[in-house]
Design a protein that fits this description.
Structural class: alpha+beta
Number of strands: 28
Strand content: 15-25%
Radius of gyration: 26 Å
Bound molecules: adenosine-5'-diphosphate, magnesium ion
Helix content: 25-40%
Distance between the termini: 43 Å
Largest sheet: 7 strands, mixed
Number of helices: 14
């Protein structure tokens, strides 16, 4: 490890030289309270900024009990990352000048969700922050003085403010404890989700995940209310959505999709003040929708589709261009294969012919002439035989009232339990067995991936082949897409062997991430951007959408 003085000397020697000379700075430097690691220097001022790590000595600055469980450690890391962000913003004061990304100092941005991220990693001995620094230049000439200011003034101040006096972490740890408690309570009480009284479900706008101001706060109907004793906050009343089939009915614009969206995101913990801190959904819950045009690889969708006019084998079905119903069938069996025990469906984003077939249509077109067995015929067996619950928004197809265990009505954003009334309206419906088997058969061959790219949160590419993530609605930010890109590379290069199936690989790599952390599957200098943890469900979904499989 080199000293600060050596770094200063080197900086002065390369001042005004051509940009490439910055490369000599790669290495580690002793800044007393922390180690500064310049891991990767960008090739030119316009390239992705340089990668820098601050490795801070964690001797007692973070109490040991804050790191004893995974949910606590992630909460601590998340809180530190947010502090780092605030301090970087406060210290930067817009004084940036030069060409390209000159003087830009940034860290991975965290949204409303608390996720494990490569940008901040805490162990018993160290706190590691990964940041990006645009090494300053005028044209393509090194502006060493500006970098000296960043490395010797800005970063030490930011590090001191971020990593010392960390009392506020207690609030994050306590919230995470309470959220973890609710997750465990769901199991004990046979619930798939909990929505606390007072929760704010709607968001500020279609492009902002901040809470809506002046929203109608959530309140549980008495019949579904449970009161949980949280370890820190104490008693909390809210709605417990039970296992089985729950239909969310109600008129248009009354808040049905908003409730479902909150449940989708409830697989993650939210920060204090989000409004959904205590909206907690069973972790494997998966949002299903139609996704015309996606590819499908050797997947058994015969539970829903058989006897296609093309005579294609639907027990091992592949296509480059799925229809609405075949895509939703594939999405469903992939979710089951990745261990989801709760399916979340919104009628509005579903293929109608996948969901239902009414009586008159069944009379006109006989069952033998119809390749699709609609979801409504399988939904009870999915629960009774396979233990998979469904929460479904249905504003127009009344048939679902018949198969539901619980019917909620959203009425001017207020939830009402209308199960009894719905039962009076029930009609006879045919039910079929879902049948348990292997759904995704595709075996994955080993493959070299030279270059992965992340194009915003909704798309990644592996060697120029794009994977469309737009319809994977539980991906919450770009860091998760980046993680998927790295995980794909890791799986294809290091785990695939031509024998393991896509779903085995998704399971194996997600176990690895759970045990060893997200850093165990991302490249050392994390190439194309900071990464955040993703679930096994998203990993399998991403693998299955890769056209190069
Ligand atoms: P639906 O799916 O029943 O048609 P949405 O869930 O899309 O209705 O909600 C319709 C509108 O009402 C949205 O703009 C949403 O932001 C707003 N909204 C939803 N819930 C609330 C609430 N609790 N308070 C205030 N506005 C809400
Ligand atoms: Mg809706």
């Amino acid at each position: 490890m080199k000293t600060q003085q050596e770094l200063r000397m080197q900086l002065r020697q390369i001042d005004h030289k051509s940009y490439k000379a910055y490369k000599v700075l790669e290495g580690e430097y002793d800044f007393r309270t922390y180690r500064l690691c310049i891991d990767h220097v960008q090739g030119d001022p316009f390239a992705t900024p340089s990668r820098v790590r601050i490795v801070y000595d964690n001797k007692g600055s973070i109490p040991a009990e804050y790191l004893e469980s995974r949910h606590r450690r992630i909460a601590v890391e998340d809180a530190l990352l947010r502090r780092l962000h605030r301090n970087l913003r406060a210290c930067m004061d817009g004084g940036r000048k030069g060409s390209g990304k000159s003087g830009l100092v940034t860290a991975c941005r965290a949204g409303q969700e608390v996720l494990e991220r490569t940008a901040m990693h805490v162990t018993a001995t160290e706190i590691v922050a990964r940041i990006e620094v645009g090494f300053p230049a005028f044209g393509r000439t090194i502006a060493a003085g500006a970098l000296e200011e960043i490395l010797f003034d800005l970063l030490p101040t930011v590090a001191k403010r971020t990593f010392s006096g960390v009392q506020e972490l207690a609030a994050a740890v306590e919230l995470a404890d309470d959220q973890q408690f609710i997750r465990e309570e769901l199991e004990r009480r046979g619930l798939v989700a909990f929505v606390a009284d007072g929760a704010v479900l709607p968001r500020e706008s279609g492009v902002s995940q901040r809470p809506m101001k002046q929203a109608v706060a959530f309140k549980s109907p008495d019949t579904l209310a449970v009161t949980l004793q949280l370890p820190h906050q104490g008693p909390l009343r809210g709605m417990g959505i039970r296992r089985g089939i729950t239909v969310i009915a109600g008129g248009g614009f009354h808040g049905k999709s908003t409730l479902l969206k909150a449940l989708e995101r409830g697989v993650y913990n939210h920060i204090k003040g989000d409004g959904r801190e205590f909206v907690i959904t069973q972790e494997s819950a998966y949002k299903l929708r139609a996704e015309e045009g996606r590819c499908v690889h050797e997947t058994d969708i015969s539970m829903f589709i058989s006897n296609l006019p093309t005579k294609a084998d639907t027990t091992c079905f592949s296509t480059e261009n799925a229809s609405g119903s075949t895509s939703q069938s594939a999405n469903t069996v992939e979710a089951l294969e990745s261990g989801s025990s709760v399916l979340l469906i919104d009628e509005d984003t579903s293929a109608t012919n996948f969901m239902i077939r009414d009586d008159r249509m069944a009379q006109l077109v006989s069952d033998e002439k119809e390749p699709i067995t609609p979801f409504i015929r399988k939904v009870r067996s999915l629960y009774e035989d396979l233990g998979v619950s469904t929460v479904l928004v249905a504003g127009s197809s009344g048939d679902f009232l018949t198969v539901a265990d619980t019917v909620l009505q959203m009425d001017c954003y207020v939830a009402r339990d209308v199960t009894a009334r719905a039962k009076e309206l029930a009609v006879a419906l045919t039910q079929e067995h879902a049948g348990k088997k292997i759904w995704v058969r595709k075996r994955v061959a080993k493959k070299r991936v030279e270059k992965v790219r992340v194009h915003g949160w909704d798309s990644i590419s592996l060697d120029r082949m794009e994977i469309d993530l737009r319809y994977m609605e539980q991906i919450v930010d770009e860091s998760q897409s980046a993680a998927l890109a790295y995980i794909m590379q890791y799986v294809l290069e290091r785990m695939a062997d031509g024998k393991k199936s896509a779903s085995q690989l998704a399971r194996d790599v997600s176990h690895k991430i759970e045990k060893e952390g997200i850093l165990s599957v991302t490249p050392k200098n994390y190439g194309a951007g900071a990464a955040a943890a993703v679930r096994r469900q998203e990993i399998l979904a991403c693998l299955c959408r890769y056209r190069g499989l």
